[in-house]
């Protein structure tokens, strides 16, 4: 059996592990080994450099803006392994290569990037006494290099931005600030946030120490309250986000549930969302990133409320709850707890804010309570620690540890965690920090955040549904193994380079939390031999680590979080980010040399093999998914296997509680928390939001956020008209038509000699013109004449030719709504105010003309789907939304609305493709060319679903982002809306 110190424990951990060596005092005749880590090879081969084991190639990285086709980045001849995808190479080149483009100082090879980081970590490890010999340091460098090269893990983005450069070497992605009830402290908060945003990171802060607007100042006046100071911070973040060199700002603002201004805080963003709707309906550009969205407040932060067990118990019991003054803690007023909880859920239902954080649960797992309570989190809610602190992150790619036979590489996983945790701790020794207070706290407590990505892909490949006992058991066991190993390595490091400075005063609390983690591991239910083997290995790590820690202490107050893994997930070519399930079964893959393909997620065939399907069956199922985007009615696929392929979005989407249950399964094995948003359908009720938030508390989560589809105006607005689901549509009899090709040609339907018409004069930004439209006897549009400028001019000729082309198209059966969807929102001069009361703003003459034609000739349902309404219709819509919100708010004291029965699952419509003659089915169709309108997986999913996805457009390149935890990431350029 292993001993209870760093030296003896390392000798039993097996070949390849980093071993702690301190000599043997009982044998004085033997030469004493130097104090430090003895490193043995795991991934690398002695005598062969990792770079020499892979094949390299040169590529050109050219990034364009999809809006206008302009090139926003270009670097040719960059060097990458052939195994790296085009997308990963593009993102790393644009985001992480340092030096001015076009100069000799610019990095041009992945080798340079990895060397810049790995060699810096090695040098610092040697300098600060982590390694026994220089040979150990060299092996450590090579092992890090191999894992980074083969996408086994990645550090967080600030490491790639800053380490090894002349810039301050900020390695942390997550920051927590503090603010007290004084103007000096509030102004310091503004300044510190700005410095953090400038460095490409995000921060969170709890404003509950600021006295409420119901309390008096020392001068006798009334205090402004924390919400008023949020305006200044929001404006600062809105400015810096567009000026930083790395990415937009990310921030979190938190208020305790017992603060007297809590109701104002809860409703702040919901009221702003009403303002956005009103401005949108008045013709202003209120899309996310639109020209006019900056006029709206509080849009640069995630808001969360901190709820206590006392409050949640009052909600459960239907009793009153006291709001307390900030100066003396006395109860200023009482409020119905259930009514306040309802307001929180209603605001989240309306605009996705506020999220919720469970204060007592968070602090029950706090390793440093003697130093101070945990009051706040970073913007994505995964890092929760002391005020004025920071955390650097790294994430493992779990698919790298899945064996072909479905087993899990436990030993390699353990050894990889050791390497990564050691490197992360070394980085604190040389890291720079934006403020002295943050630097002092971080060096004293050395918070780390190891995590993972690709759990969704791993579960699917293993034949396990994400929302299942088996899936949750595997996820919990892997998470426990990761954190248990990380803390065991931390205890061993404490025996070499010392425990963290704050350990002595928090020793009992830290040991108590370690025992809680170990006990939770014992509670994992056995499900399979694989999950049980992982659970047993995790138990060994907790037992050994706790024994070593009781003697040495621990090097780190915190070891793990589950971050969004947005940009670094793309860098590692992960199918799924963080703890998320797969977004959809179809992917959008960029090709070398340009272009792209829609492919079925390659995890799908692997999953089908793992549950026993033959290759012929797999080909047929993959072909079905490629055509339909889902597995419903896939030939040969058993219905009991459908759930294995459930995704976050699409025809078979995971239920909200399925996401919550997965979070609850892994939370006991995370030092911090989990970055994740629980997606809810558009027709979800306020009661369902309440239930999710309430169950989050019951299940022991630390934080939770929800997002209801289409609840934000600042997202792509309208849902595209749903086609008839495939399950309801009559099945086409393909066998009867494949032998005979029938070609259909459109027939021109000419207008009668005498037809009615109407002429509209218009003015767009001062440019005047006339629109004459003629129709058929049934009222349908058949002819358009446009006049601008003088007869004989070039512009007049172009407009005449355009009119003829549109008219012939209409007469050949092209629907007017097709023209409207193509030409509205087209941007060119002249653009601006019009003289039409129904269309106050137009982005071009074409935009105005086709909006006017839509209002005159299309029915209300079609126009509303296109987002084109008259002024009266917009006013009625706003009034209806306000009335609905009032009705929902008035339901707080009434009986809950009965939940409706779940709708039957039906197949989604097939991807829209150009009409062509029917063809015999091919034997194997694993991939199809992507529709020309899709640029990312999210947009591809929109085509599969037949509706718009709620995701913002990337500020950098304009493409639609995809969810990554509680943030979003751009697949085109790697930009994120978060902080990791």
Automatic annotation (TrEMBL):
Keywords for this protein: Cobalamin, Cobalt, Disulfide bond, DNA synthesis, Nucleotide-binding, Oxidoreductase
EC number(s) from the headed UniProt entry: 1.17.4.1
Positions of the Ribonucleotide reductase large subunit C-terminal domain: 172-707
Keyword Transcription regulation: no
Comp. bias regions, Polar residues: 1-13
Pfam families per record: Ribonuc_red_2_N, Ribonuc_red_lgC, TSCPD
Substrates-to-products reaction catalysed: a 2'-deoxyribonucleoside 5'-diphosphate + [thioredoxin]-disulfide + H2O = a ribonucleoside 5'-diphosphate + [thioredoxin]-dithiol
Swiss-Prot/TrEMBL GO biological process terms: DNA biosynthetic process
Cofactor(s) the protein requires to work: adenosylcob(III)alamin
Domain Ribonucleotide reductase class II vitamin B12-dependent N-terminal span(s) in chain numbering: 61-151
Superkingdom: Bacteria
Gene3D superfamilies recorded: 3.20.70.20
Stretches for region Disordered: 1-38
Residue span(s) of domain TSCPD: 766-856
SUPFAM superfamilies: PFL-like glycyl radical enzymes (SSF51998)
Sequence similarity: Belongs to the ribonucleoside diphosphate reductase class-2 family.
Described function: Catalyzes the reduction of ribonucleotides to deoxyribonucleotides. May function to provide a pool of deoxyribonucleotide precursors for DNA repair during oxygen limitation and/or for immediate growth after restoration of oxygen.
The name this protein goes by in its record: Vitamin B12-dependent ribonucleotide reductase
